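Review form for a predicted model. The reviewer records the input and the model, then writes brief findings.
Reviewer: anonymous (R2)
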Amino acid sequence: MLLGAAGIMHAVRPEPFDSIVPRALPGSPRAYTYASGLAEVATAALIAVPRTRRLGGLAAATLFVAVFPANVQMAIDWRRKPPRMRAIALGRLPLQGVLIAQALRVARRG
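Model under review:
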């Protein structure tokens, strides 16, 4: 549910997501925002259907690895923000590991 909601937010309010797209990537940050949002919605749909849940778990793990650089970019960009914002940005880094582990667990259980 959260994965699908996050994906929808990429389309509804793309600006915060645009801001964490690593600047080293070629092209428009908005394109990456929309693509990752679409991938999140599609992955959520795969996980929701029992027949495709294993594939959805693998897709989610791959997606969480792929978006990790955006979390690193956020941590770098927010290093001079107020302490609460820095904590949020830094907390997202280990959270990705938890999300990857959960996605792999879903894939194993199918």
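Findings: The chain is about 80% helix and 0% strand.
Further findings: The chain has one domain: 2-109.
Recommendation: see findings above.
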